[in-house]
Amino acid sequence: MRKSLADPELGGCMMLLRRRSMLAGFKTIAGKLGSVEVGKTVTIASVGDFILVHQGNPDKTRYDASCNGTWLLLADAYEAGDYTTYFGSSNNYSMSTVAGKLVTDFDTLFTGAIAENILTVKIPYYDMTTEQNHYLADGFQCKSFLPAAIEMGYYAADNDEGNEFVPADGHILSYFVGCLPDTVSEDPKRACSARYWHRSACTTNLVDVWTTSAAGRAAARGGSSAQNSIRPIIIMSKYTEIDGTEITVSE
User: CB of 4 within 8 A of CB of 14?
Assistant: First the structure.
């Protein structure tokens, strides 16, 4: 006997089928980078150790939707401080020498499935020539990038508005919440083996760029007169598999 669509038994079967269909297309982050806690060390075999500094989009009013992923900051200065470079002839990150070097040098370290899971993103940055922050779709497109000073907690306490020296070119990342907000205090979460560049201009002139010392204290340096190391950030898909070989996670 053919059942009517109004039959409660048939209706229950149809609901079960719909649920199974929905679950079949559902992606889980279990065993993926998106399930890892902030502060953990993520090792990428071909490159080295990274600190997981944020999960998701830090601020949807400043960051493009492309930034919704797992944020990884290189745990130490690139090549332990042996690699140094000038920032560039101006302190505009979008036109800087160092941003170009990330494309031709650092980005090429990643291959295969790792490279495929690194997101192409648009990050906020400050342009001193126009004295404006560039947010959302107007951000700088890249795969790897230098951290903004405010992302690492410098002058982030007051609604991430920075001050007359530090631009509001981002939002504090979860790992750095609680760090001392001023530029003169040392903080171990920012420290590494060598002084490194930020992408943030010092907003008093067209030359100086913010850096962090090995001890974890900020100072402005001339982009074309000083050479410093780098600690790039990459944002990976939350669904990147932790396979225990190419990608491992530890404390």
Answer: no
Taking alpha carbons only, the member of 13, 50, 2, 34 closest to residue 232 is 50
Ramachandran quadrant class, 91 (left: phi over 0; alpha: psi -120 to 50; beta: rest): alpha
Question: How far apart, in whole angstroms, are the C-alpha atoms of residue 179 and residue 18?
Answer: 48
- Nearest 5°: the CA angle 58, 62, 67 is 50
Tokens found for residue 170: 């981002």
141: tokens are 């497109």
Q: Are 136 and 63 in contact (CB under 8 A)?
A: yes
Could you count the other beta carbons within 10 Å of the beta carbon of residue 130?
A: 9
Beta strands in 106-179 (DSSP E): 121-123, 125-127, 132-134, 140-142, 144-145
Q: Of all residues in the chain, what percent carry a pLDDT higher than 90?
A: 78
For the chain, counts of helices (H) and of strands (E): 3, 15
Beta-carbon contacts of residue 106 (< 8 Å; ≥ 6 apart): 78, 144, 230, 232
C-alpha triplet 170, 174, 177: angle, nearest 5°: 90
**Least confidently predicted of 8-22, 126-140, 153-167:** 8-22
Q: Which of 142, 141, 124 is nearest to 133 (CA)?
A: 124
The owner of tokens 């990428």 is 44
Residue 15 has pLDDT above 90, yes or no: no
What would the pLDDT profile of 218-250 be if each residue is shown by its tens digit? 999 999 999 999 999 999 999 999 999 999 999
Dump pLDDT digits (tens) for 78-119.
Answer: 998 899 999 999 999 999 999 999 999 999 999 999 999 999
Delimit the domains of the chain by residue range. Answer: 57-237
**Residue 121 and residue 114: Cα distance in Å, rounded?**
16
